[in-house]
Amino acid sequence: MQDSIRLVMEETGCDEGQAMLALESCNYDISKSISKIFDLLKDIIVVKTKFYTFGYHLYGMLTIIVDIKHQHHLRTKALVTYNPKVYESDLSQNWYEYERKLYTARLVSGSIPDVTLNIESTIVDEILDEYNESFFSAVKERNIMEVTDILEDILSGPLKTSAINFEVLLEELNLAQFKKMPDKIIPQQMEFKFKEYDLTFTDPLSINVVPFSEGRPLVKAGVLSIGDEIFVLINDNREIAQYLSGLLGGRNAYMPVALPSKIHEITETKDNLIITVRLAAGVVGKMVITEDVNIKVLSLVRRRGFVNRFLFKFYLIFAKIFEIIEKLTKISTNNGKGGKNE
Fold first, then answer.
1. Does residue 223 carry a pLDDT above 50?
2. pTM (2 d.p.)
């Protein structure tokens, strides 16, 4: 009897009580007991997580699979995206379906591969090192708050913010359930779209933008014309606007980026100008500014009259020369400081 128990323990890694239970349920048939034990070993925990960051408008999904008996990390898969629809994913669904949805979302527009891979490697490194004892202990005790705190600590670095909202759910599996799932999940097509965003709309989608006024050449808003190409920043906090901003290149994972956009319409009011720019097919940006606001330009349409064309061309050349002089002055100043320090 003891030899049978020891053999089952050696073959499966279970403890004595689990081996005894498997043998008794299989009429002491060792071969059947070894197969049975995998249905009894509920030592696999899947940590299913979804999160979003305040301010940066990033959304994510995580699955971390661990063997709590042997304190062994099995797999971590992550997603970071601009698409807020992924945050609507149901944590209570089967872990396999949840992870399959995660894989699919990594292939859909809005996914940020470099940040995603960085998060995956950071989680694995930290769980196997600094947070090894605390993470496995929290998962084993089903302490959701502690798991959430640990994940926040780990992800605050790669996400460059501690303002992260997490939802976490733990799912328990036996070894047989986990082994039945393929290591490589082939995703099926799943939709992550905004119902309110459709390129076939009769009216374009309008989002808020502001002028970008850093660098040169700069011109006053009052001299701009339809067709001029200027730089703008998307400052619309709506989810759809932030999603499109990421897709259009209007921001990286952590900050807004200036977009070159062609002026579509200029409307004058009593005190301001309403400038509409084209951002993409079916998407326009609008800003309300005064005439004396400086805006960085990429190109200007041909003005009527020789004098106007000459003045604008001269202005652009002068601005470029001034920019070069400014850079050389900074280099010279920095070199001078370096020499004094020596």
1. yes
2. 0.68
